[in-house]
């Protein structure tokens, strides 16, 4: 890599890291291109060289964040031998690594651009990759007869929606309390909440 290419790459990384912090802190709508350029020390020319728009920048951030998060999870979970163990471990991982403020910015992003827009469809594809990743755990559990034989994609969507909803608890719980909540929620998900008669 030439020095020029290296410098351009570093500029791109700096823009993305700065934008990530700003989107998480201020939300999507309240973060402007000027904010990102000022905080990153980059010119608008540099910004638009790497990203044609704020939408494209947010999509690049989302894809990068989800890909890195899942790759890291695979590394952390490589020694686990059952889908049940992986689901409990993923609940812990979700608490430790989930960026709820940035996810809120994602919800705001979709609300602003619309789910049927080109950028909205691209964001949906990125989100579906996350569902596909969870689906691999579900399929493993079904094959090992740990989980009921349900539609694996639908079950993966339910699990991710379940965890995502629970993540709002960061507003009033510390990390350890959240981990206990997620552990209990995972147990209830696996066991169901129907009581045996007479209990």
From TrEMBL:
Domain HTH tetR-type: 9-69
The UniProt record lists the keyword Transcription: yes
Family matches, as SUPFAM superfamilies: Homeodomain-like, Tetracyclin repressor-like, C-terminal domain
DNA-binding span(s): 32-51
InterPro entries for the chain: DNA-bd_HTH_TetR-type_CS, Homeodomain-like_sf, HTH_TetR, Tet_transcr_reg_TetR-rel_C_sf, Tscrpt_reg_QacR_C
Source domain of life: Bacteria
GO biological process: negative regulation of DNA-templated transcription
One Gene Ontology term of the molecular function aspect: DNA-binding transcription factor activity
Keyword NAD on entry: no
Keywords: DNA-binding, Transcription, Transcription regulation
Name of this protein: Transcriptional regulator
Species for this entry: Paenibacillus selenitireducens
Lineage: Bacteria, Bacillati, Bacillota, Bacilli, Bacillales
């Amino acid at each position: 890599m030439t020095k020029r290419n290296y410098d351009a790459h570093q500029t791109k990384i700096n823009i993305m890291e700065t934008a990530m912090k700003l989107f998480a802190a201020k939300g999507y709508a309240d973060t402007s291109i000027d904010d990102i350029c000022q905080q990153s020390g980059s010119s608008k020319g540099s910004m638009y060289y790497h990203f044609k728009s704020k939408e494209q920048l947010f999509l690049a951030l989302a894809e990068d964040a989800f890909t890195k998060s899942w790759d890291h999870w695979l590394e952390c979970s490589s020694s686990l031998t059952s889908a049940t163990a992986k689901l409990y471990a993923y609940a812990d991982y979700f608490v430790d690594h989930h960026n709820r403020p940035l996810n809120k910015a994602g919800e705001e992003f979709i609300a602003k651009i619309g789910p049927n827009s080109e950028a909205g469809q691209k964001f949906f594809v990125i989100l579906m990759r996350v569902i596909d990743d969870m689906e691999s755990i579900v399929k493993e559990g079904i094959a090992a007869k740990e989980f009921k034989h349900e539609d694996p994609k639908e079950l993966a969507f339910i699990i991710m929606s379940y965890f995502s909803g629970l993540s709002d608890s960061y507003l009033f719980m510390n990390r350890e309390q959240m981990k206990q909540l997620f552990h209990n929620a995972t147990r209830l998900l696996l066991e169901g909440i129907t009581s045996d008669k007479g209990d």
